[in-house]
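Meet today's protein:

…
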Amino acid sequence: MKDLFEGIEDLFINVLFAPLDWLRELELESWFLANILNFFFVIVGFLAFLYWMKQLKTYNDNNEENRDPKAHSFLG
C-alpha cells in the first residue's frame, strides 16, 4: 500500500508538476514569461465575463425576465 502512495507522489512531483517547476525557475530570467499562465487565465475570465454581460443584455433587451416583485419567492 505504501508503494501505491509513493507512486502517486512520484507521478505528481516528477511528472505533473514539472511544468510548474520550470515556470518557477524561469521567473529568475523573465517575470513576464513566468506569469504567462496567469495572464492566460485572466484573459479567459475577462472574455467569459464579457460574454456573460452580453447574454444578460440580450435577455434584458427582449424583456424575457419577469420583473414583478412577486415573481421570485425570495423577494416576497
Remarks:
- Residues 2-61 form one domain.
- The radius of gyration is 23 Å.
- The chain has a mean pLDDT of 89.
